[in-house]
Amino acid sequence: MIRIERFRIRGFKSIADVDVEGLAAINVFVGPNGAGRSNVFQALALWSWLLEQVTSPEGQLSLLPAEQLIPWGTLDAEFGLPVFHTRGGNSIHVHVECWLDEAEWQQDDAPDHPAGHEMRVRLGTRYADVKALRVISEVALTLHPKGLLCQTRNIAGVSDFHFEVSNSTLAHLLTRFHHIRGDRCFLEERRARGELRAPLWADCHNLKQALLAAELGGDPRRKRRLSQLRRTLSAPPLSLGELDVILDPVSERIDVGFVNGNGWLPLESVGCGARQLLLILGQLFLNDCPIVAVDEPENSLAPALQQHFVWLLQRLIEDPQSRLCQVFMATHSPFIASEQPCFEVTLDERGFSRVSRLLDAEQARYFPDYQRKIQ
Q1: Is the bond preceding 237 in cis, omega lying within 30 degrees of 0?
Q2: Over the stretch 78-92, which tens digit does the pLDDT of each residue have?
Q3: Domain boundary assignment for the chain
Q4: I need a surface site. Which of 79, 108, 178, 349 has the fewest CB within 10 A?
Q5: pLDDT (tens digit per residue) in 32-45
Q6: Can you tell me the distance from the alpha carbon of 54 to that of 339, in angstroms, rounded to the nearest whole number?
Q7: What is the value of pTM for the model shown?
């Protein structure tokens, strides 16, 4: 289990400085459109992405032209430009504090991913029985006259014992902070040559390929997750039928649909809510990401299905076979926000994003109409 308990973001897009703590397994971010809820998630995604990019032992990239360090085209595709603060900022700082359960490093014995070995060596025999570690990770991305400089540092520890963790180890254990954006949609896809190795970072732009790879591939974990996804979609209250993935042998086009009492129903013929659920649940089931953020999961979903979606998240987090440990959601729905830790994102008098924890009484006032209905 890996779970973020606190983060601080400075200088990212509309965010000058926000500090959020007291995070739980499911966390809800509310507030008006344009206040920067999605920017919070993108900054955390940038943090985990930079852990993958900065691989030098010192945790620092040499001063070379920016496009050779971290290409602007890559930043644009991942996070949208400009990533630096809208008021002319030239540096981004992300500070993350999280808990890492021993299962994350004890199960990793693969020689091509020595993250678990590094953790066990650092702990040694004296701390070999440690059940969890607190990890503090910091990344800084700074504009420099000679290029784009990225610096990182990760410290893990327990009580009076602390040690430095390499970026590659933490990135492997974390996998990546996965952000499912609000502009998600299905695209026409064709079969990828060879095995599909790329995870669903492109916000489900390769979801059909991932479904086909799970269907035809030999990975037992993917097959098990696909079976779980099928059961979820066919069971009440969704009752969509059995998820079916078809490959056209001539065009190699991938078609997705549902088999039910009325025959084969193509994806394009089901309701918007069903497509939205598949776009989100497909990524949750088929990815290995322990921490996921979702923009407005309530889109096109009836209130009962919104509540069912939250129930599904809770079940996935509790399932020992699932890697999902923590979820962040940006929502306008009281049916999703109820009974979850709630954080309000607003703009201050200068137009900067700010985040504040809503107490139960404040949350009740935030959704007054909903509170009257359930009383």
Answers
A1: yes
A2: 676 678 876 767 889
A3: 2-177+325-374
A4: 349
A5: 888 899 999 999 99
A6: 39
A7: 0.88
